[in-house]
Amino acid sequence: MAQSRQEAAGSLDHMLLANVLSILERQVGTGELSFRAAYDIYVAIAKDLRVALSIKELEDTGHRLEAAELKMPDM
Fold first, then answer.
1. Of 2, 51, 61, 68, which cross-links 25 as Cys (Cβ 3.0–4.6 Å)?
2. Burial grade of 57 (CB within 10 A; 0-12, 13-18, 19 or more)
3. Rounded mean pLDDT of 9-17?
4. Torsion (CA) 26, 31, 33, 38 in degrees, nearest 10
5. 7, pLDDT greater than 90
6. Buried b (16+ CB within 10 A) or exposed e, 41-52
7. Angle 43-74-33 from CA coordinates, rounded to 5°
8. Where are the alpha helices (DSSP H) in 1-75?
9. What is the mean pLDDT of residues 25-45?
């Protein structure tokens, strides 16, 4: 019972991180946040949630945020 509760909480944490990443991508894409600030925010939230991110997940997140920054409209 306790293990299934932990698994559910872990699943919710990952869903929350996916939503946070989506919001951060949008903010980077509009120029509201820099790539570096968005990446730092994402990692800090994951750390607060005690979600262990693999190197691959961190790299993928970095690539997604960089891509959002490249799509930023010219001002």
1. 68
2. middle
3. 84
4. 50
5. no
6. bbeebbeebeee
7. 20
8. 2-29, 35-48, 55-70
9. 95
